[in-house]
Amino acid sequence: MNEELIIGIDLGTTNSLVGVVDSGFPLVLADREGGRLTPSCVSWATSGEPLVGKEAFRSRMISPERTVSSIKRFIGRTFSDLTAQEREDAGFPLVAGRYDEILVAIDPETLATPEEISALILARLKKIAEEALEMPVSRAVITVPAYFNNTQREATKRAAGLAGLTVERIINEPTAAALAYGLDKLEESATVAVYDLGGGTFDLSILQMRDGFFEVISTAGDTRLGGDDLDRVIARHFAATLALGELSPGEEATLLARAREVKEALSIEDSVTARFPFFRGSASFELELSRPALEKLLTPVIERTRPIARRAFAEAASKGVAEVERLILVGGSTRIPLVREKLQEWFGLVPDISQHPDESIALGAAIQAGMLCGRVRQIILVDVTPLSLGIETFGGLMNVIIPRNSTIPVKAGELFTNAVDHQESMAIRVLQGERELAKDNWLLGEVTVPFTPGPKGSARVGVQFAIGLDGILEVLARDTVTGEDHVLEIRNAAIDVDDEAVERMVSESIDCAFDDMNERIWTEAKLKSEELLPAVGEALALVGHLVPADDLAGIEAATARVRSALESESHDSTALKSANAALDEATQTLAAILVEAAFSGLDS
Ligand code: ADP
Ligand code: MG
Fold first, then answer.
1. pTM exceeds 0.70
2. DSSP secondary structure code for residue 324 in this structure
3. 271 alpha carbon – ligand 2 mean position (Å)
4. Smallest CA separation from ligand 1 atom 12, residue
5. Residue tagged active-site, from 115, 116, 168, 173
6. Region class of 57: left (phi > 0), else alpha (psi between -120 and 50), else beta
7. β strands within 44-98, DSSP E
8. How do residues 400-436 score in pLDDT, each as one tens digit?
9. Domains assigned to the chain
């Protein structure tokens, strides 16, 4: 069918995700319940077909020994390769096959290889993608840890094959994270470190991004270090505090599940109460844990990432990497505030938390997949958009996202940023029409996207417009920093406009073209003046006493000219533009003095 489409998969130790690039916009696809994380779990808790994903994860407390998780630890390895500790920690029985392959032995009749179990997870992801995209998919890019050897990579490919997926490329997880990070910085060259602390594994990789290429310079990791270990430490603390003594497998699973919940909640809260209703017969327990107490428990585990990270840094240094500019955090466990604090303390780098900890690897895989297939979707010509659709941008201008006469279905998107410092939200006003100024177009709807306040240009909101065959416009605004989505559905407005209204709008836009254009130029010039005037004021306050009197008089005159042009009723954009230019010219000396003062460290 649609042979072009390739999906991107993050086959994680704990959670797996599937994504795709749609109209230049990488997205993680959600299952029917709207969930984007699929637990990498398979369970034979019930008779018949094994449960996969969420259902399997839920069954782990009832049937812990028939539920398989973290199978990624075993893929592409042999039985004799495993340590006794690894076999014991697996949580499910492992036996050796005839060729020394690892077999998960649920019961004598139910034996499965790690590849087969991984294939069940991959098949689930394939299905999620097919349902979300409403088309069959058969090609994928899959991510694996940078430290995976060839056998492990090949085994991952075979698992995909069993799931009905052809692997177009295997890429390294840190590379995928860097791809997601660098999507809009492809021209930059930078050396970045990716610190990935997930559920069962930790790794730190140092990469060089140059001209859109990403090269892993060094990588170090521990395949047995992650959120699960933190859960174990907390569960042990619960068991000790409550003096529970010997635990049944079910009790242990319950303690671990509670430990994880408490841990995750304490990334935000200061204190949490863990409740164990009817834990043993009719006995119920309750236990409070504070953030400082949790941190005391977690510190030794988190400290274990330090020498590993150091190794990767040292290796990069030995390969001539002088400086790592950025430390990018990914993996669910990097949400823990203590991790962030420690990293800053250890490496003196402010961790970059711009990436979604759960999704960035899947997004990177999707981006790679999108690059491979060119992501051109065959468009069925059904209808066209009668009028342009866009949003209002800074200064009240219309920014067209889908131009008039685009065939539907159609999708297009653009990335926007905050125009001023400490802006807390962005109002997305959805407009339809052909006029240059927002106010002259029709307002179809509005949605406000809140974001974490930061300096001008730090927030990133991706806005995607999609018109389906049904003519419904769906506006998706995503804060790319938090991954939070805001969806606005506009029924019938996009296509269902009566012909007369369209005609009027179009003819008005032609009639008003000259005025409109002037108005746009005016607005742009006005924005420039509004930037210029306070800047000149500040510079004068700082170094005005060093500027020759002649220049001062010139600056004053030019400032007055800009002010009066701004006040003009007729919005004379030519006058304003030339006034701006004159002010620019008049402040040359002032600018030079300012630069000099900055260099000599003048502080008056
Ligand atoms: P993997 O790459 O191993 O599949 P993920 O990156 O999905 O794993 O991370 C899963 C881990 O992240 C789990 O151990 C989970 O408990 C942990 N995690 C998720 N959210 C939080 C949070 N808010 N605070 C602490 N840990 C979290
Ligand atoms: Mg991961």
1. no
2. -
3. 27
4. 332
5. 173
6. alpha
7. 51-52, 67-69, 94-96
8. 888 876 766 778 888 877 777 777 888 888 888 878 8
9. 7-225+304-383 (3.30.420.40), 227-301 (3.90.640.10), 389-500 (2.60.34.10), 513-600 (1.20.1270.10)
